[in-house]
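User: Last request for today: this protein with adenosine-5'-diphosphate, please.
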Amino acid sequence: MNIREKLRDKKKIIVKVGSSSLTYEETGEINYFRLERLIREITDLKNMGKDVILVTSGAIAVGTKTMNLPNRPNCLEEKQAVAAVGQANLMMIYQKIFSEYNQHVAQILITKNLIDQPVRRQNAQNTLNTLLKMGAIPIVNENDTVATEEIVYGDNDTLSAIVGKLVSADLLILLSDINGLYDSDPRKNDDAKLIPHVTEITDNIQHMAGGAGTVNGTGGMATKISAAKIATSNGIDMVIANASVDNVIEKIIYGEEIGTLFIAK
Ligand SMILES: Nc1ncnc2c1ncn2[C@@H]1O[C@H](COP(=O)(O)OP(=O)(O)O)[C@@H](O)[C@H]1O
Ligand SMILES: N[C@@H](CCC(=O)OP(=O)(O)O)C(=O)O
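Assistant: Here's the final one, the structure of the complex with adenosine-5'-diphosphate:
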């Protein structure tokens, strides 16, 4: 059996979707085509008998639009304020569409540093595992009101790997606005080549990863590589793929050569 075919047997799956995949680059408005497809695919994973956690960005992007600001704010307090507005909005939308598929969702707001705090870590772990046992879909984002470090660097990528570690996930899927990891940023280099598999995260791989590609994205490929390090060193395979590909999750699960697969140690 080849490495890709094994992905079909993964039972506990984290799906992370970035702001750039949930909104239109030109207008900043929500991309409902994308959102509805994502929700349908996650429901299908559940119907296949898998446990799924969704890590979603987008609070700042959605809140910026809701509050009619011309651009994504730069100052921290304003980012936190629009994130609070956008998070409520985003959850309302997820709840509405997931309920059309008879799915129950739960909001989980956490910070990366909970991993270093045993009591908080245990509480987060208990809540997530109990939700999965109940058949609900935990929807996770950074707690932007208190997570000043993350909001500056925009690191839901690393957060999703930490969540994976917390629940001993089998697979982490990062859905982005790019096909996977290239040997250089394809927005800057027309000759950039997609890397289909990574077995070891060497210095060379880290040097390939640049910053965000659009005004809505944050962290870029660098934070995805940080996520890959945490995931693979904790036995979790990770795939970076393009959210705009039709049935992208199904294709990953059925072993299609799509995106970049980071193979767990
Ligand atoms: N080596 C690389 N391979 C692929 N993408 C890269 C690379 N270096 C930088 N990037 C940029 O990373 C972006 C994806 O990250 P980001 O903008 O943070 O999106 P997201 O909202 O999905 O997290 C791409 O659009 C691309 O411009
Ligand atoms: N917590 C922030 C997300 C920060 C973030 O990591 O963004 P992204 O690079 O789009 O995954 C928000 O919801 O806007």
